[in-house]
Structures are given as C-alpha cells and as structure tokens.
Amino acid sequence: MKDRIEKAEVLLEALPYLRRFFGKTIVIKYGGHAMANDELKESFAQDVVLLKYVGMNPVIVHGGGPQINQMLETMGVTSAFVRGMRVTDERTMDVVEMVLVGSINKEIVGLMNRHGGRAVGLSGKDGELIIAEKLKVDDQDIGLVGQVIGINAKVIETLDAADFIPVIAPVGVGLDGATYNINADLVAGKIAQALHAEKLILLTDVAGIKDKDGSLISTMASEEATQLIKDGVINSGMIPKVECCIDALTGGVAKTHIIDGRVKHAVLLEIFTTEGVGTEVVRSTSAKRRPIGRIRKS
User: Fold this and answer.
1) How many Cα atoms sit within 13 Å of 126 on the Cβ side?
2) Beta partners for 132?
3) Is the distance from CB of 160 to CB of 25 less than 8 angstroms?
4) Most confident segment among 8-22, 51-65, 213-227, 231-245
5) For residues 156-186, b (16+ Cβ closer than 10 Å) or e, as one string?
6) Helix axis angle, 222-230 relative to 238-250, nearest 10°?
7) Which of 51, 132, 184, 256 could link 245 by a cystine bridge, Cβ 3.0 to 4.6 Å?
C-alpha cells in the first residue's frame, strides 16, 4: 500500500503543471545521445505521447548530425565545417535530406505512433513550413546552409488542432526554390516564436548550464546568460544553444530549457517536477541562480 500511495503522490506533484500547461504548445528540439540510445528513444517517444494525451501540444524538431556524418563517410564524402556549420554542396544536401527526412523523421514518427500517438512527419519544404535564405559565416559562402526568415505556423496549428503531433526535419526552402540545411536548434527556436510557445526545450548531452565553479545552474535570467557568454563561462557548443534560448525569449516564448537528454524521461521530469533535469533560462530579471534540487518552477 505504501508503494501505491507514493505513486499517487508522484501524480499529485504533477497536477499543478498539468493544469498550468493544458492547451499550451511545447516545442522540443530532439537530438544528441537521446537519438542514439534505443532505451532513450523509447522513453522520449512515450514522453511526447503522454504530453499530447494530457492536453498539451508538443511540436518536435529533430537533428541528425551523427547519422549524416555516418552516411557521408559510407559514401566517401568528406565534410568540412566552418564555425560548427557543415559546408553543404548539392551532393551533401541530397544526403542531408535523405537522412533527415527519409530516415530519421520516419523512425521518430513510427516510435510515437507505436506508443499510441498520432505523429506526422514533415520537412520545412512541406506547405512551405520553413522559409530560408542562404547563411554566410564570417562572409564565407558555405553552400546550401540556411537561416530561417519565415515560419508558416498554420501548417503546425492545423495538425495540432486535429490532435496530431508534428515531427519536423530542419530542412527549409528558399524563395528561389533551393533546399537549405538549417541548424535544428535555430529552427526549433523560430518555430517556438511563431507558435507563441509556452516552452522551448533543447535536449543536449550535458547536464545543463554550469557556473564558473562547475555547479549546475537551475534557473537563470537571459541577462545573466548573456554575461556568462561574455565572461567565457558559457563557451563552445553551448553558446549557440543559449543564444537560441535568449532569442526565443525575446521573440515571446515564455520559458526555455536546456536539459540532459541522457536522462530517461527527461522531458517529463523537466515539465512535471520542481527540480527538473537541466537549466531553465527565463526573461525575468528577478530570476535567481539556484543549485539543482531547489524548487524553481514559477
């Protein structure tokens, strides 16, 4: 009986969040180790389906860099990178689209549907969902790499209203009809803005954002995040993720989260528990840095 009561208490802990986020849009960028480990794949699919069943509107944007690397290596194609961006010629773009849209996207959709969801796979070319233009890095032409200039939110809203779960590959289309490879974090951020999402959640392979002493920061204001980037505390691959969060907050997203996708059921733990499994970045200048384990949800 004690075990049963403890299970009931877990459900009751989630009640305030179920009430608060009912009918809200949650944009989740799915990537990293969570896409490579079979157990984590299953738990992620279950998390997303549960969110839909309890009345939220999850929207998934996925990456696929390691899978693209593997396919290119198999084909004998060598990739070059400029500031973390893959130089993408037409041959590479064909592989990127084949892997993201034709393989990974379908696998994610299949997993969610197997767990009782009604997922639908999309690329940014479907219904002109993601309009892009060529991105130049340090004035260098890196090929068919794009940046988002427009989101057709009606495509996603129509699917949400019909109780489908959109699963989006980060491939966009230019005004000239060209296909562009776009960073999945950036796509997720722009989609979250266009949908006025309650939350943007980025799954990563780290515990979250850490301070200069290496302690995990549970909650921080965007102003503090900007300062930590200037101070070099936030560095390397974490910089674009944090900048994505700041941009999303500026664009009207209520809260953003960088969470540890290596943790089973990380999405549910972040949304429905007080501690979470990563760092939330918020607009409020009143946000205080708190060690992990302290109540932080507002």
Assistant:
1) 15
2) 148, 174
3) yes
4) 51-65
5) bbebbeeebbbbbbbbbbeeeeebbbbbbbb
6) 150
7) 256
